[in-house]
Structures are given as structure tokens and as C-alpha cells.
């Protein structure tokens, strides 16, 4: 709980919304009307048009940005959809996550004061997303071992069991009621159950954790309407309070799970994580451990429904599933973009970039770069270099849970289509309205006749 008086907390919250959302939204909308490509791409994410139309316009905008060269200078910074340029920035020490302090004077001091009262979240230190070495190295080292390829493969059998249990539940639905929302009944439950077991979350708490994650997902975006911003901050505070209680339970009754290891872990100097570091790290691992995988599962189901020839190829050759998951990640990534700030005067692809400049890295655009991917706008589960996508970012901030997400998607999608080979989607699927996290909030389907197990 903040130490500020109640009235000051309300004022600080309004300052955060004004500087982080209201003013940037006004500025980008104005830039979009004036023809700025980056502004148009941001404004498009708030468009109410159908997803298919939005995706086509979005793709054309990213193609235009890429045609400008390795990096395009927009009204508010730089943006790139070039695969080589995005990869270069992600691996460069000349760039860091977060935003360098660019507001000075009284307004800058006001922004810093208001930001100090913000809830613990993915874009506030000590989150792994916005910290850099040496802190980032220390935090990441403590959690890396549970997400290694070897550790994830040891989880595969349990993930397969969970998937089959969820499919059994779907199959036990009363006759004539095989219509189901796959996001709430399957795509959300599989990854949240896996990550909850990794972090020692009681079974009864898992729906609550899923609700926290859904409520906090827009925290990665800017330009939020005030009501949604308030909902996000409330979700983050509720999540942080729940985490504090959960960590105390773990301290009293440690088990064979990652959070128990984090509570007792010490680095070479004998230092452990502070309470704030522990909540930030555990919260990010917990939320990121299922949020992106929910999107990956839903996106994959929708892609296979729209491309029955690719679904048939997987039916004929199940060995293609790992590559198919990478092609899903390339074609419709769960994370649309990321950002970096230049820590010194530098360059991208030979183009000068000044210190403090913000660079928006369009991961989805890099994944459609024709210089690397032949016929990039075609979904092809046999694509030989599908794994070269950048959907898991890169460099020191490469996604910690990449191996886990791949495994869960492979297990979950293969099990679903094996059990329900006649699965079809209904009209009425709804995409999430978040700008950075991309997926489905509602995916209505008819399961069809199951295959006996």
C-alpha cells in the first residue's frame, strides 16, 4: 500500500494516465491524420473494423514502413519492420528496454513522483522486462533453470495429462451441447494450470490468477482510455496483494516448485531477492507464463481453421507439429511489438539514431520480411525457416519461457485436433483489443464427434 495520502494517490494516478496515455494518444492520433506511418499503425490498433480488414491494412502499413529502409523515422521516434534491423537492435548494447528520462524540469519531476506510486507491474522496475544488467542478469539467473529446454521436456508428460483432462471435460458435455468457447474452456486453462503448478498456486486459485492476467494485460499498452487504465491499475494492485499472500504461504510451507526455490535462492554474494523483487519476478513469470501461450493457442486454432489444407498436412504427418507452431508464431505472433531506447548516439542498418531516441520494433513486421521468408504472407506449416521468426524477441531479453510456450502449444493443439478432428469455428470470434498482446478473447467453436481415446 502506498504511503501517500489518499488525495495525493488519486492525483498521482491521474498524472500517470495523463502523461502515459491521454497525451500520447492525442499526439499519435494527430500524427496519423497527418500521414505519419507509425501514428497510423498505432491508431489502427484502436479501430473497430473487423479483424480481417484490420490485419490487411496493418500488413500494408508494415510493408510501407519496411520499404523505407532498415529504419523509418516517424514523428515520435523510429520504427522498423526489417528482420535484420530488429535483430540488430535486440542484440545491441547500444539500446536498452524502458524509456530514458526525456522530460526535464518541473514536469519531469512530477512524472517521476507520480511513477513512484504506480503499482508493481511489467513495465516498472524491478520487472525483468525493463531492467538491465547487472540486476537483470541476477534476476534471470535465478529463474532460468526451470525454463531450460531440458526442464521443459520433463514437464511435457504433465502438460499432456492436463490437456487430456481438459479435453475429457469438453467431451463430457451433455449431448447436443458441443458448442464451446475455446478460449475460456481450453486455451486459457491449459497454460494457467501448467504455470500454476510450476509456481505452487493452489488449484482453487487458478481461475483467479487467469482473471488477474486478463485484467492486467493492457498494462503493456499506452493510450488507454481512462476507465480501462483504472481497471488495469486496480488489477495490478490486486495481483500484487495476492502475490504477497501467496509468497507468505510458500514461505510457511515450501514445496518442490519454482517459487519455493526463488524464496530461498541466493546469488554468489549470498543475496536473495527483496520482497519487491520477488513479487515482480514471480508476477511476471506467472502472468507471462500463460498470457502469451493463451494467445498462441487461440491464434493457432484460428489459423488452422482458415487453412484446412495445412490442417490436413498436420493430420497426415504429425511430425510437422513443432514446425507448425513456429509458423504460427511467425504468422500471427502473440506479441506484436517491443521497444528500445538508444543509450548513446548509434546507428541501425547504417542509419544514425541519436541518444535517447525511442525505437519501435515491429516483431510481426520482421516476421513478414520477404528478404528472409519466401512468400511471407502465406501460412505454411512446412516452411523450412519458420523458426527464424523474432516472436520471442532476442538478445538478453529473449523470452524466458520460449521453450515452455512452444511445448505447450505443440501439446495442446495436437491433442485438441486429434480428439476433435471435425472441430469448426463459428462466426463471432473476437480479438483482444490490446495493442501489444495479440490473441482471441472469444473463440466460439463446434467440437464435432470426438475420436475415442
From TrEMBL:
Superkingdom classification of source: Bacteria
Protein name: Cytochrome P450
Pfam family, any one: p450
Keyword Metal-binding tagged: yes
Gene3D superfamilies: Cytochrome P450
Key words of the record: Heme, Iron, Metal-binding, Monooxygenase, Oxidoreductase
Family classification: Belongs to the cytochrome P450 family.
Keyword Metal-binding: yes
